[in-house]
Write a structure and sequence with these properties.
Length: about 250
């Protein structure tokens, strides 16, 4: 049974708090949960909420995490790497065991083998209980750009010009942005037991409307989430601006 839910909240702060509520509720029910985690600007508020709740007693000591993606060619200590981002925004502030943190190895000599092993590791823990996603203005999820096959698993992907441009703010120069990344695939994401997608701001409104109310098509990767058995979109009023009221 497909159960796509859309929760429209007032603003970014409410979006972040509601997402944190869902994570906290899961961890209280299942302390050994496996979390799928994104990067970018959208989840920063969620991570701030989780850090605050950890300080108030939320326990991550039995949690396993898998990040969605990492740039190819960036070492873990590079300030623009997602390893670095996760340390700064979440991991160094909570008690998740270091050995249970998993992020694709952007510096791997054999990226294809690193992707295969990452997929194996996810399967080895029984899959991801809750995947948190953002969405690109072109509808990408993870680094799965338009036209990515729905059957794709963790793989080495090329980034679209729009994605490179959007991520340039994290680098000194746009030409410094990596052209490729290691990313969970569409099938990898769809295999997660529960998915929560976060979006805020007017710039995401067209992608959100197409993902929720448009046709399911590889031209807009997030549209595949309409087919997931347990998926929730949490969007602020601005991101929900193009949705038809039904």
């Amino acid at each position: 049974m497909i159960d796509l839910q859309v929760k429209v909240v007032k603003n970014y702060a409410e979006m972040s708090k509601l997402a944190a509520d869902m994570v906290a509720d899961l961890l209280k029910r299942k302390p050994t949960s496996v979390l799928g985690l994104p990067t970018g600007s959208t989840p920063i508020g969620l991570y701030e909420e989780l850090v605050k709740r950890h300080q108030e007693g939320l326990d991550f000591s039995k949690v396993t995490t898998f990040n969605l993606d990492e740039y190819q060619g960036l070492a873990a200590d590079h300030p623009a790497s997602y390893h670095y981002y996760m340390e700064e925004h979440l991991f160094r502030h909570i008690n998740v065991p270091r050995e249970k943190i998993n992020i694709p190895d952007g510096a791997a000599a054999d990226a294809i083998e690193a992707c295969r092993m990452y997929e194996e590791k996810i399967a080895g823990v029984g899959g991801i209980d809750l995947m948190i996603l953002g969405i690109g203005t072109n509808g990408h999820i993870g680094f799965n750009e338009p036209k990515t096959p729905f059957g794709s698993t963790t793989n080495l992907v090329s980034l679209a010009p729009a994605t490179i441009e959007a991520n340039a703010r994290f680098f000194e120069r746009e030409e410094d942005v990596p052209q490729r990344a290691l990313s969970m695939g569409i099938k990898s994401i769809m295999n997660c037991h529960k998915i929560v997608l976060l979006a805020n701001g007017e710039a995401k409104a067209k992608a959100i409307a197409a993902a929720i109310q448009g046709p399911v098509t590889e031209a807009l990767p997030a549209s595949v989430l309409q087919l997931h058995p347990d998926c929730t979109f949490i969007v602020d009023e601005a991101a929900a601006g193009d949705l038809d009221n039904e």
